[in-house]
Amino acid sequence: MKIATFNVNGIKTRLPNLLEWLEREQPDVACLQELKALDGAFPVRELREAGYHSLWKGQRSWNGVAILSRGGEPVEARRELPGDPDDTHSRYLEAAVDGLVVCCLYLPNGNPQPGPKFDYKLAWFERLIEHAAGLVDGPHPVVIAGDYNVVPTDFDIYNPRSWLKDALLQPESRECYARLLAQGWTDALRHLHPDEPIFTFWDYFRQHWQRNAGLRIDHLLLNPVLAPCLKEAGVDTWVRGQPHASDHAPTWITLDLQRLKPPTPTRRRAS
Predict the structure, then answer these.
(1) Is 106 a catalytic residue?
(2) Is 28 a catalytic residue?
(3) Where in the chain is the site Transition state stabilizer (predicted)?
(4) pLDDT per position as a tens digit, 70-93
């Protein structure tokens, strides 16, 4: 099984790029972020013609997340991250897909910092950490995929000096990500490529794409049930070089689900 995450940066504008990528790479599951469209504008027909079932949550002009599947239809589990009933941002979807729990997230950017946007980022991160604690040790295979808006270490950016004041590199952001991993999650891309500079995002300024001056902020985290199935991980960088491209490239993993251990049966106590 191939699972990917892709911040499309506007699904109406980038639909041709998205469809080309789906046809060429054919992920079994794709988590999308930054739809920047209301629910009624989601291209469900075009994606169905491309062979994908869709689950989505849109928002006007900002945010928005979706889960696509080539196999069984995603079965929605939740449409928001718990912990703040007043949070109206469309940033989280969770669904059962072909036996896996797939969580798609778009973590807040947090800029400018310090300020209320950075405070919101950290508060959202705390909610994620709390919710993830209930998923990491469960019996089901779980992947949390998306745009985390966090550069985990200086090795994950072309030049940290240029981004020292950015919310993506702040110690508080990195500390939250480290605490999330410490629960037992496997950062798939870094796990398989520990010594290789790998980027998933190149902004539109100062020829960053042309100079490969990128950041790694799109991550796929696997819980201990799913981590033994990990075979490959990579980035479809060719997508970033297409005309009218998103500033992100799809990031993906392949899994051998035959490695999944059957759940341990619960033993009943003798009455």
Answers:
(1) yes
(2) no
(3) 149
(4) 988 999 999 999 999 999 999 999
Instruction: Look up 248 and say whether it is catalytic.
Output: yes
**Cα distance between residue 219 and residue 251, in whole Å:** 7
Active-site residue (options: 147, 166, 187, 218) = 147
> Is 86 marked as a binding-site residue?
no
Q: Per-residue pLDDT averaged across 192-208, rounded?
A: 96
Average confidence score pLDDT of the chain? 96
Interval 34-51 mean pLDDT: 97
Secondary structure of the chain as H, E, C letters: CEEEEEECCCHHHHHHHHHHHHHHHCCCEEEEECCCCCHHHCCHHHHHHCCCEEEEECCCCCCCEEEEECCCCCEEEECCCCCCCCCCCCCEEEEEECCEEEEEEECCCCCCCCCHHHHHHHHHHHHHHHHHHHHHCCCCCEEEEEECCCCCCHHHECCHHHHCCCHHHCHHHHHHHHHHHHCCCEEHHHHHCCCCCCCCECCCCCCCCCCCCCECCEEEEECCCCHHHEEEEEECHHHHHCCCCCCECCEEEEECHHHCCCCCCCCCCCC
Residue 17 among known ligand-binding residues: no
Q: What is the pLDDT of residues 96-148, one digit of tens each?
A: 999 999 999 999 999 999 999 999 999 999 999 999 999 999 999 999 999 99
Residue indicated by tokens 């169905």: 48
* Catalytic entry in 106, 156, 187, 208: 106
Q: What pTM did the predictor assign?
A: 0.95
